[in-house]
Amino acid sequence: MLTVQSASPDPALLPYIRTYVQREAHLGARELVEPVVARLGVMLEFEFAGSYEVRNYGSDSIEDPNAISVIGPQGWRRSRLIIRGDIESLVVMFQPFGFHALFGIPTALLSNAGTEGHALLGRDVSRLHEQLGNLISLSQRARALDSYFLRQLSGLSSIDPVQKALHLLTMPETGLKVAGVAKQMGVGLRQLERRSLEYAGMSPKTLARIARFSHALRLRTERSLNWTQIAHAAQYHDHMHMIRDFREFAGEAPTSALQEIEPAHLIHFAMEPSSKGR
Question: From which residue to which does any coiled coil extend (predicted)?
Answer without folding.
Answer: none
